[in-house]
Amino acid sequence: MTLAAIILDMDGTLLNEQQQISEETRKSLIAAQQQGMQLVLASGRPTKAMFAYAAELQMDRYDGLLVSYNGSKVTDYATKAVLFDETIAVPTAKAVLEHLKQFDVKVMIERGDYIYVNDVYNQAIQHEGTTYNVFEHEARSGDYRLCEAPDLAVMLDFDLNKIVVAAEQAYLLAHHEAIYAPFKESLNAMFTAPFYFEFTAQHIDKAAALAAVLEPRGITPAQMVAFGDGLNDVSMLTYVGTGVAMGNAVAELKEIATTVTKSNNEDGIAQMLLSLLACDMKNKGQ
Prior knowledge:
It holds the Pfam family Hydrolase_3. The protein has 10 helices and 16 strands. The protein is α/β, with parallel strands linked by helices. The strands form 3 sheets. An 8-stranded mixed beta sheet has the order 5-4-3-2-1-14-15-16. The chain folds into 2 domains: 5-86 and 204-283, 3-Layer(aba) Sandwich (Rossmann fold); 90-201, Hypothetical Protein, Haloacid Dehalogenase-like Hydrolase, Chain: A, domain 2 (2-Layer Sandwich), CATH 3.30.1240.10. The protein is globular. Helix 1 (23-34) runs parallel beside helix 10.
């Protein structure tokens, strides 16, 4: 089957530890687009936080697509047209925010140019001996401003693409089931990093977004290759014909992947694409 689309998670996959796209990977992805491949970035990030990387990959020239918020929104990068948008309605979002008050977690919601939090000074997460200032990281990644709202549930009057819950890994592992329990029948929730647990609308994930926008374009799952590293990539790697786990991926993803490539610091994407596209051209008799 001829490959027609390349889908890439960002953090831990497309981006190396320096949060950069390596030159080899960048060139390989631009070359793939020049050969007619549809490029899709599929991330837990807000749409705005994906723009700079899409520009590096020249996705405006080749009809590139951005799947953001773990699949709740899809945007045409060149035109900024929204092709798919499934949000959490205000009453349900308020209920989640009220529920979260009983847990020792940091909550983030986003609208426009702002990320809203309860306390901008309470943002430190300890993980593997490193301190992460999670609000600062999220704000700087998409050029957002931080805004305090002592009670997020009270101030909320707009639908949300996602609700981000941050806490230290041990705490989230111990409490994520209780955090999710009241909403299992109405929302989707998943780990997107060891210290992030995120809510989206019901039945929303990366695979659902890909099906919504790529299949109407005549691209079947068998024609798609997807790269990922985390638990929020499971749905898309099982959906596509070729699911590639990065060398640095979590064990659960490697178990369900079609194949495993080198890590995000070793140009795993570029090396796997070289092999896949060579096979593709051979099958075409070129």
